[in-house]
Design goal:
2% of the residues lie in helices and 68% in strands. The chain has 320 residues and is mainly beta. It has a 16-stranded antiparallel beta sheet that branches. A two-stranded antiparallel ribbon has the order 15-16. It has one helix at residues 129-133; strands at residues 2-15, 21-39, 42-57, 62-79, 82-93, 97-109, 114-125, 150-163, 167-184, 191-210, 213-226, 231-232, 239-248, 254-262, 265-268, 275-278, 281-291, 297-302.
Length: 320
C-alpha cells in the first residue's frame, strides 16, 4: 500500500508598533510512503520526503531558501512473544549537509495482559527560518545565522497493561540527551545553541471504558536541564496532568469534558527580561461531536470554561 501526501503552507506574520516587520514564509512538502507485508510476522515501510521553505522580510530585507530531502526505512518482525523494530533515516539539508539517524526497539509479552518495551533512537533537527534570520525586536529575540542543528539520543523503557477492550494502561521512563539545543537564551535573548541539555521523566496513561463512558488520564513528570549552566530549561513545566471524560450520546456522537493542569515553569520576564517563575494553571474544556450524515460531522469546542487567566509564555496573552 502506497501513500502520497502533498502540502503547501503560507504564513504571513505582520508585526506593528515600535518594531514593524512583515515576514512571509512558504513551505512546500511532499512525502511518499510504501508499506509492504511479505508475511504475517513482518512489515516493511520505506519512503521519501521533501521540504522546501522560502522566507522573506520586507522591513529588514532578507530572502532565503532552505530545503531538506529524506529517505527512510522501517522493519518490524515478530518472533514468538518478541517484537523487533529497526528504523533508519538519512536527511540531506541544503544548509547543513547529511545526517543519518535511526531507532531500534524491542517489545516482549510477559503475560496475557502485560508487555515490556524499550527503545533507543537518535534524531536531527535543523533550525527554521525564524531561528536563523528573524531580525528580532530592537535587538531582542533575534535569529542567529550561525546556529547549528540539534542532535539527540533518546532511551525509553516501560510497561503496558491491557484487560480486554475496556482497560489499558502504560507507564514509561525516558531520557533524552540533546547537543546544540536551540533556545532563545543568548545575549538579548537571541537564538543560540545550548551545548548540552538533558530531559528525563516519567509518563503514565490510563484508559477505562464502562458502558457509554470513557475515561482517559495522562500524567507527565519531567526534568529539563541545561547541563552546561546546571539550570532549568525555560518554558518546560515539571508536571502536566490531563483528565478526560467522554460519554457516547443516545443516537451517535459524544460529549466530553477535559481538565488540564500544568505546573509552574521558568521563563523570561517581558518587562525586565530577567528569569522569572510563570505560575501553573488549570483549565476546563468542553467538546461535542455529532455525525450529521455519512460524510459530514459537526464538532464544537468550548475552551477555558471557568475563564481562568493564565500564561503559557510570559508576556503573551492566552486565548480566553
Amino acid at each position: 500500500r502506497s501513500t502520497l501526501i502533498l502540502g503547501n503552507i503560507i504564513d504571513n506574520l505582520t508585526t506593528t508598533g515600535g518594531f514593524p516587520s512583515r515576514i512571509i514564509t512558504r513551505r512546500d512538502t511532499a512525502e511518499w510512503q510504501h508499506n509492504l507485508s511479505p508475511g504475517k510476522a513482518t512489515t516493511i515501510t520505506a519512503g521519501l520526503s521533501y521540504t522546501n521553505e522560502n522566507a522573506s522580510n520586507d522591513s529588514a530585507p532578507f530572502d532565503n531558501q532552505i530545503s531538506n530531502t529524506g529517505i527512510f526505512a522501517d522493519w518490524r518482525h515478530t518472533v514468538g512473544a518478541n517484537e523487533l523494530e529497526l528504523g533508519l533515516r538519512n536527511d540531506t539539508h541544503s544548509a547543513f549537509g547529511r545526517y543519518s539517524t535511526g531507532q531500534v526497539a524491542w517489545g516482549r509479552k510477559l503475560a496475557r495482559r502485560w508487555r515490556l518495551f524499550t527503545s533507543y533512537g537518535t534524531a536531527f533537527k535543523a533550525p527554521d527560518q525564524n531561528e536563523l534570520y528573524h531580525p528580532g525586536f530592537g535587538g531582542w529575540f533575534a535569529g542567529n545565522s550561525a546556529l547549528q542543528p540539534e542532535t539527540s539520543t533518546s532511551t525509553e523503557i516501560g510497561l503496558r497493561f491491557r484487560k480486554g477492550k475496556n482497560i489499558s494502561a502504560k507507564a514509561s521512563i525516558y531520557r533524552t540527551e540533546i547537543t546544540n539545543l536551540i533556545a532563545y537564551q543568548g545575549t538579548n535573548n537571541q537564538a543560540i545553541n545550548i551545548g548540552r541539555a538533558n530531559l528525563q521523566g516519567v509518563e503514565a496513561t490510563y484508559s477505562h471504558r464502562f458502558g457509554k463512558w470513557i475515561t482517559q488520564t495522562n500524567l507527565t513528570l519531567q526534568s529539563a536541564r541545561d547541563a552546561i549552566a546546571n539550570s532549568d530549561l525555560l518554558r518546560r513545566p515539571a508536571a502536566k496532568l490531563s483528565l478526560k471524560l467522554n460519554r457516547r450520546l443516545q443516537r451517535s456522537g459524544n460529549l466530553g469534558i477535559e481538565i488540564l493542569g500544568v505546573s509552574n515553569h521558568a521563563d523570561f520576564s517581558n518587562i525586565s527580561f530577567s528569569t522569572i517563575d510563570v505560575p501553573g494553571y488549570a483549565i476546563v474544556n468542553l467538546s461535542i461531536r455529532r455525525p450529521l450524515t455519512q460524510n459530514w460531522v459537526l464538532e464544537g469546542r468550548l475552551e477555558n470554561l471557568l475563564d481562568n487567566q493564565y500564561e503559557i509564555v510570559s508576556g503573551y496573552n492566552t486565548v480566553p
